[in-house]
Each structure stands twice: as C-alpha cells, then as structure tokens.
C-alpha cells in the first residue's frame, strides 16, 4: 500500500501530548501512525493506525519503522514524543534509574532517528520533531536526571539538524512548558530517598503538581508540533504556549544572579 498523503509516525500516542498531536496531524491532512508499548490497552483514535513499539528496544524501533514504510510506502514526519519522568534529588537517584530515563528519553530518540533516516534520505525530504521541554534549557531542582535527558535532546537535535539538512531532512525541537498530562503520576520516584532532601523534595513536588494542574492543555503542544511539521520554512525550535515563551526569554536575557534567584523562588527553595 502506498499513499499520496504525507505520513507521520508519532511515538507515545496513546495519551497526553502524543494523542493530541496524532489527532491534530490527522486534521492537518496526514496519514498518522501512533505507537504505544501495549496497543491492546489503547482507545482507538479516528484516523490513527496504532503499532506496538518500545523505544527502549533496538529491534522494536526498527520493526515499527519498517512496518510503516511497508504499509504506506513513506514516512514524512517522525514525532519523538515517548518519554518518562523522574522526580527526586540527584543524590537520591540511582545510576540504574537515571540510565532508564536516558534509555527512553535520549537513546529512544536516537533509535527512532537511526531507523527512519535512511528512508527520509532516500525520499530527499522529512522532518524529525523531538519533544524536548523548557527543562531542556532551564535547571529543575529535584528533577536532575529528567532535565539532563532533555538538555541532551537539545544538543543532539541541533547537531543532527546540521548533518541532515543537505539531504532534505530537518530536525526540529518542540519545547512544552508544564502541560496537563499524567506526567507527575507516571514519573519515577527516587530509589534511595534521603531525609536530608525530604523537605526540599516535597516542596518541589507540590510546586510541580500545581504547575501541571494549571498548565497548558496538550492541544497547545499539538499545535506547535503541527506547525513544525508543516511550516514551509521551519524553525529549529518551537516553544509551545506563552509560558514556554516567557521561560525562553528568561533564560536568554536575565542576568545570571537574577536568573538563579528566580529559579529558587519559583521552586520555593531557601537561600
């Protein structure tokens, strides 16, 4: 089977940002393939074909891409949305836990990119949209492993974009702020909690819960993803929503001391 419509592959499409992105891409005229680690639990979405995929597995990533190409004959857009969260102080987070975060959030993206790039280069076109975060350019106390994974995505994506541009492919970053999803409930807790960090961790946990509760709807991020997929001259980075835009301005223009104080104030940390 081949199609004349553009084809988008969206990882982690069963809920939250991935689900809304898949639906928004359908509305924008794409044939959309969404992925989930267990499609038997997925509620069907109009216009979206679902495949099983665990981005933490090499064979799974390769097989999913091959299935899409076999069925549709092309892949025009890859949205690397699948990810996991991690809460807790850096010292409380075991290396095994941090490696698990990176295996999905960073190496999962790399697996999907390596699987899809040969097809996009052969087509002479394609867009790879990597979902980062404002924590890809801001520090976040008590989420060091997660922030590190998103900082890694920023550097990887920008470097990748320079490599593939001459082949008609672009690598693009979308940076959401706090979004009303199940992020907090689905984030890993520290393996080895330490009493010395308990007060700060609990304070930041409450700040994060409130920020997510009052955050942007996933549709706001979906709009940025569609823009990244369809703009005639795409930008390298798309901030998703006004809060993400303000955070980007803060990082770029605030003096270092003022920026440091603001991060502590936002997280209600002493000193």
Task: Based on the coordinates given, report the CATH architecture.
Answer: 3-Layer(aba) Sandwich
**Biggest beta-sheet profile:** 7 strands, parallel
Provide the spatial order of strands within the biggest beta sheet. Answer: 3-2-1-4-5-6-7
Low-confidence runs of at least 5 consecutive residues: none
CATH superfamily: NAD(P)-binding Rossmann-like Domain
Can you describe this structure?
The chain is α/β, with parallel strands linked by helices. It has a single domain, classed as NAD(P)-binding Rossmann-like Domain (Rossmann fold, 3-Layer(aba) Sandwich), CATH 3.40.50. 47% of the residues lie in helices and 14% in strands. The chain has helices at residues 16-27, 58-72, 95-105, 107-123, 144-164, 198-213, 218-230, 242-253, 256-266; strands at residues 7-10, 31-36, 48-52, 77-80, 126-131, 169-176, 237-240. It has a seven-stranded parallel beta sheet with strand order 3-2-1-4-5-6-7, with helices on both faces. Helix 1 links the parallel strand 1 and strand 2 (31-36). Helix 1 packs across helix 7, helix 2 runs parallel beside helix 4 and helix 3 (95-105) runs parallel beside helix 5. The radius of gyration is 19 Å and the shape is globular. The mean pLDDT is 96. Belongs to the short-chain dehydrogenases/reductases (SDR) family. Keywords: Oxidoreductase. It comes from Streptomyces phaeoluteigriseus. This is Oxidoreductase.
């Amino acid at each position: 089977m081949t199609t004349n419509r553009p084809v988008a592959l969206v990882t982690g499409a069963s809920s939250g940002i991935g689900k809304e992105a898949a639906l928004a891409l359908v509305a924008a005229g794409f044939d959309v393939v969404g992925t989930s680690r267990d499609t038997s639990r997925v509620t069907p979405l109009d216009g979206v074909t679902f495949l099983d995929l665990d981005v933490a597995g090499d064979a799974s990533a390769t097989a999913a891409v091959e299935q899409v190409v076999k069925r549709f004959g092309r892949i025009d857009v890859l949205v690397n949305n699948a990810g996991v969260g991690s809460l807790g102080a850096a010292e409380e987070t075991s290396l095994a836990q941090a490696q698990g975060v990176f295996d999905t959030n960073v190496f999962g993206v790399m697996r999907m990119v390596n699987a899809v790039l040969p097809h996009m280069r052969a087509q002479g076109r394609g867009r790879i949209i990597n979902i980062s975060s404002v924590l890809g350019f801001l520090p976040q106390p008590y989420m060091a492993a997660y922030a590190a994974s998103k900082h890694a995505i920023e550097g990887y994506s920008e470097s990748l974009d320079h490599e593939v541009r001459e082949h008609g492919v672009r690598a693009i970053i979308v940076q959401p702020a706090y979004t009303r999803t199940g992020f907090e409930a689905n984030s890993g807790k520290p393996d080895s909690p330490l009493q010395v960090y308990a007060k700060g961790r609990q304070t930041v946990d409450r700040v994060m819960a409130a920020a997510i509760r009052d955050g942007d709807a996933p549709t706001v991020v979906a709009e940025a993803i569609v823009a990244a997929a369809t703009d005639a001259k795409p930008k390298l980075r798309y901030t998703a929503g006004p809060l993400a835009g303000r955070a980007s301005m803060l990082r770029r223009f605030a003096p270092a001391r003022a920026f440091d104080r603001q991060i502590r104030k936002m997280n209600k940390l002493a000193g």
